[in-house]
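Input (structure):
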């Protein structure tokens, strides 16, 4: 079964490009850009394995999202990307996390 990964970020084009670039990986990609979208994804998709939060969101919102995710779904691993590497490093960050989750057959 493919892990379900929730990508959270302010920049819609970065989230979309990451999912497209990594579509070859054994994962199902979901996206969210706001607090409300994160809540909706948590409600409708019980198979979410991890959430990856980008670096372009405000720190207060990122903290709020971590708290919301873990309070509603303590089974989900949450990863928060640094700001310094910029949006262009988001795809590599996501790839490294998913590579570590997927066990070769």
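Output (sequence):
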């Amino acid at each position: 079964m493919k892990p379900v990964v929730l990508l959270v970020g302010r920049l819609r084009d970065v989230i979309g490009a990451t999912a497209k670039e990594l579509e070859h990986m054994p994962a199902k990609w979901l996206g969210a850009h706001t607090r409300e979208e994160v809540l909706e994804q948590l409600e409708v998709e019980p198979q979410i394995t991890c959430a990856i939060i980008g670096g372009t969101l405000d720190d207060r919102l990122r903290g709020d999202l971590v708290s919301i995710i873990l309070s509603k779904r303590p089974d989900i691993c949450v990863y928060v990307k640094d700001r310094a590497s910029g949006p262009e490093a988001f795809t590599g960050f996501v790839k490294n996390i998913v590579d570590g989750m997927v066990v070769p057959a």
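Notes: The mean pLDDT is 94. Helices lie at 12-21, 35-44, 59-72, 90-101.
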